[in-house]
């Protein structure tokens, strides 16, 4: 069986790697966090010890890392995936933008490079139901990558051009983030007028206002005031800015994207760098004159 490498065992990477293991694949793993590596080794993975060894020993390498800069360094850097030898197939599951996907494909002509960002959160990663949006060469996708991606989620090949998956992901994230922002505004207004938040969400979920925020984020993380959905506001801001940069370069105005960016900046200012993106709700509550710390 193919030796698979997995770099980046965070909130998303760890469950995705675990699903490859469960399917019986031999898995080499690495992360800058020793605890993250230990958790996967306990499930049967082998520790590569370094990013370079991972790239040298594996036929297929997956990356699930926070930002484009970290992915670039982890792949192309002096001690990166391609520093000693290189895998035949490289698949970046991070949200790292179309420009980086094009850069990696151009820098690595001997590697089949795929961008394959995911959507569906930690729950989707654990249950292998995440949507995976893929860009890269069709034949190798069908022969090698698709069967592996089907073990961790629901892949769709968006096109051969590097970045096709990333572009799709940025579009999806705009819709997801706008849903949170507009839900935060509507909920703040209703609460200010004396409506019960739990009843509001129940009604929205059987009315035309239903969206991914009313369906998942409010019931799990905002109504209980836990703000722990599992996606960092900092990463959501990174995604929004990737989108705004790409759209500006393409001459496409995205005014709602600018509003979401502003909400995320204010969320990070208020809640600190570890804030979850569902804490956007608190910004709208405060603007409405409610006290987010008194459970509104
Ligand atoms: P995370 O911060 O939980 O995990 C990132 C992991 O990468 C951490 O374990 C960290 O130690 C490791 N890491 C950082 N730099 C490294 C390096 N140089 N070498 C090896 N390991 C390194 O982030 P996450 O939430 O799992 O997100 C990962 C990617 O998936 C991001 O691009 C994010 O935008 C995207 N994403 C996240 C979600 C979500 O709900 N959390 C959903 C869809 C997409």
UniProtKB/TrEMBL annotation:
Keywords attached to this Swiss-Prot or TrEMBL record, sorted alphabetically, are:
NAD, Oxidoreductase
Q: Where is the 6-phosphogluconate dehydrogenase NADP-binding domain?
A: 3-156
Classification lineage: Bacteria, Pseudomonadati, Pseudomonadota, Alphaproteobacteria, Sphingomonadales
One record GO biological process: organic acid catabolic process
Q: Which GO terms describe its molecular function?
A: NAD binding; NADP binding; oxidoreductase activity, acting on the CH-OH group of donors, NAD or NADP as acceptor
- Source domain of life: Bacteria
The answer, when asked if Phosphoprotein is one of the entry's keywords, is no
Q: What is this protein called?
A: NAD-binding protein
For the keyword Oxidoreductase, the answer is yes
Active site at which residues? 169
The 3-hydroxyisobutyrate dehydrogenase-like NAD-binding domain sits at: 163-283
Question: InterPro entries, from UniProt?
Answer: 3-OH-isobutyrate_DH-rel_CS, 6-PGluconate_DH-like_C_sf, 6PGD_dom2, 6PGDH_NADP-bd, HIBADH-like_NADP-bd, HIBADH-related, NAD(P)-bd_dom_sf
């Amino acid at each position: 069986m193919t030796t698979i490498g997995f770099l980046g065992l965070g909130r998303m990477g760890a469950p995705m790697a675990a699903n490859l293991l469960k399917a019986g694949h031999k898995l080499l793993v690495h992360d800058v966090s020793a605890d993250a590596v230990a958790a996967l080794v306990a499930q049967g993975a082998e520790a590569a010890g370094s990013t370079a060894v991972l790239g040298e020993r594996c036929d297929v390498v997956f990356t699930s890392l926070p930002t484009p800069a970290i992915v670039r360094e982890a792949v192309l850097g002096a001690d990166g995936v391609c520093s000693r030898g290189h895998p035949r197939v490289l698949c970046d599951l991070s949200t790292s933008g179309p420009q980086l996907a094009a850069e990696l494909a151009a820098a690595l002509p001997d590697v089949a490079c795929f961008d394959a960002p995911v959507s569906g959160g930690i729950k989707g990663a654990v249950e292998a139901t995440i949507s995976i949006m893929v860009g890269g060469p069709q034949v190798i996708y069908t022969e090698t990558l698709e069967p592996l991606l089907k073990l961790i989620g629901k892949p769709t090949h968006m096109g051969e051009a590097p970045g096709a998956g990333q572009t799709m992901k940025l579009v999806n994230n705009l819709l997801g983030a706008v849903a949170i922002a507009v839900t935060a505004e509507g909920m703040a207004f209703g609460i200010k007028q004396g409506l019960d938040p739990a009843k509001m969400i129940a009604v929205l979920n059987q009315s035309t206002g239903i969206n991914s925020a009313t369906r998942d984020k409010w019931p799990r993380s905002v109504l209980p005031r836990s703000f722990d959905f599992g996606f960092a506001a900092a990463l959501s801001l990174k995604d929004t800015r990737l989108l705004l940069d790409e759209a500006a370069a393409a001459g496409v105005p995205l005014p709602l994207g600018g509003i979401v960016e502003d909400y995320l900046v204010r969320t990070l200012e208020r809640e600190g760098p570890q804030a979850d993106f569902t804490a956007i709700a608190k910004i709208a509550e405060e603007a409405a004159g409610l006290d987010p710390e008194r459970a509104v």
